[in-house]
Amino acid sequence: MNDGFKDLKGRIRKLEEQLVARGHVDVDFAQAVSRVRRAVRHGDRSREPSPELRGLLERAETLARKST
Known about the structure:
Blueprint: H1 3-22, H2 27-42, H3 51-67
């Protein structure tokens, strides 16, 4: 796993922690986190994360900020 994916996985873990702390009540946020998880599973970890994957992550982070 390269450094780009390592950073991305850390950011996803933080989002997952926020999701659990909120009790899964924000459906849009939960779906955004789920989309990122699926994209990471199918991504090539030997390369930098794709722009699409970064976009999904940024959308989930935006929803996380809006809900706090």
